[in-house]
Fold this sequence. Notes:
Chain A contains four helices and ten strands, in the order αβββαββαβββββα. Chain A has helices spanning 2-26, 73-81, 130-147, 237-263; strands spanning 35-42, 50-58, 66-68, 98-106, 111-116, 159-163, 194-195, 200-205, 216-223, 229-233. The longest helix of chain A has 27 residues, at 237-263. Chain B has a 15-stranded mixed beta sheet that branches. Chain B has a four-stranded mixed beta sheet with strand order 17-18-21-22, covered by helices on one side. In chain B, strands 5-8 form a two-stranded antiparallel sheet.
Amino acid sequence: MKIKNLVITSFVSLFSAALLAVSAHAQITSYNNTDALFGFRVTSGTGSTLDGMIDLGPASQFNHTFTLSLGSIGTFMTTNFGADWFTRIDAATGRTSVQWAVVADDIVANTLWSTRNPSLVSPPWPRNSDSSQSITATNIETVAGTYSGNPIATGTTSAMTQATSVANSWASWQPGGANASGISFATWNPTNEGSTNTVLAFDSILSSNTGGLHGTTLGFFTWNSDGTLTFTVVPEPETYELMALGAVGLVGLQILRRRRTVRA
Amino acid sequence: MKKISTLTLVVIALIGATTLHAQTLVYITGSTAYRSATENAILHIYDATPAVQIAFQNNSATFQGANQSIFVGNIGGVAVNVHTSWSGSEAGIQTVADPAQTVNFLPDSTCPTNCSANPGTSVAAGTDAHHPDVAMSDTFQSTSQFNGIFRGVTYGALSEAAGTVAGQGSPVGIVPFKWCASAGAPFTDITSQLVRALYGTGKLPLALFTGNNADETKPVVALGRNPDSGTRLTSFAETGFGALHVVKQYQPQDSAGALVKTTAGTISKFVAWPAETINGVPVGIFNSGYSSGGDLSKAMRAVTTDPVTITATSYPAANVTRVAYLGTSDADSNLLSGAPPPALGVELSYNGVLLGIPVAPNTYNNVTALTEGQYTFWGYEHVLYNTATIAAAVKTVADTLTTQLHNVDAVVLLSNMQVSRTTDGSTVTNTYATP
């Protein structure tokens, strides 16, 4: 009986191990059109031959303030890019060695989303023709093609690293990269990147065949020193109107109270 | 008595099995652009007697254009069955470099019943799954995504076939390509710039091709191959778009929503090519295309309804032009020659240089625009195998085929080229001393 139990236990253990192995193999990155890709490259120091990408999920989710759950992203950053990844300065540029950005595209509608450093570029990114934005969309999809299907870094939700030398790597589409024509994704001039401590605006950019129009800032990304990413939404105009109405109401109430107090 | 009978049957079966094993079985896959040249080379390496027996898939009138074929006979006195199944250069590299992959071939049992001497017998497609030994490829493996680790799979390093004589190995020749437009196209040239714009957007105003502002409302639609195609990789490497760049291509459909892939089909609408998974690799919407250059060339010649729809917008048929990239064999035989109807398509010059169709008895070997480096839309043709896993007898056949292609049957012989390039899409320079 003991032997029989041992055999059953062994079989169950082996089966579980096999299942785990299958699960481990199944942990590969996947990307869907309109997903937001959080990417970064390292211009000096530890990990400077690598870049990284994380699929943040659909761009449509960026309509409220929240901090994204990316798993043990701090450990991932420290392991691959050094304990000083958040503060290390590249002497050649004077900026942090890690430069990051977030992009997304809708390849059917030719809508784009991109981060922007508000201190470098203002107002939001310009809206371009559907043809022009289509080219950028295929550029983003090409980078996404190098993200998809890779092993997910241990402990993270969807992070991966890649060699910057890979054709169409994230770094290759940033300033100085082989495909970038000097500017981010051959589109955003001079760059859609920021340093680790830069709060980046996130613009929605509908295509427009009318010149001179600009995208809409949905909110701001902050990359925290523990690796987490926070999105702070820009309140919509209706929200401002409601807040203003509320303020007027409060002032009115105060006046009424004072008058009643004086009469009493 | 019964035991003796059983024993006799076993012995006969063993003899039969031994006989089967005595035959060398070779499985070749890859480039559809070089299908015709390779099929001819296979025919030519077989001994004259006994006459090689041939069967081929009935998608084509000849074995040179078929998706699958089988040759049974002797090569250098050794019994060899060569099987071919063509699905594109990248698919060829993928399936040869990954030991877990198989490709469907015609079974050995096709012959002798359904085989005959050249020109062979037409049969239905085979589903005999085998790991292929040899890939014909229009690109270097270094250009392919199936090079090292991709999507969690390790693709082994493939070697250029050595050939049977030193200096006559792979690459085995030149594979020229053409840009083509559908019948009635009001332009005759395409530039690298226009290719990048067209395939980055899927459709462009005709005005960009003609310079005529009356053409701003008329669309030019991009058609093409799926990412398993070496023709596709070469096209986008050559034009500077990037061999592995995501593109936007439309799918021509008939009124029932079926893919049009014959010259007899009628295109009623163009839709974004649907997302699909090819050999386990997901391909996003717009980014896929035809699996065969033959089918694409036929769709380029098919007629359209009037009006014809592109996504949700209707256009007069006369206002819509299709553009595609094709190997010379498919372009010449299915789109640019033959008796109309449908009307013949248009070969476009590339960056102002026309390749043209050589008039018999000349071949592309005599087209000096190509051999002198004026026309640059070409690549090298490679015979690739894994030296660590290929059987010695199979390697011998592959090397014999390589030498045959190199010396005789390549679309353009390397010995005729006065120029070279180092990789796909790289700069073309002269091979002789600069004056």
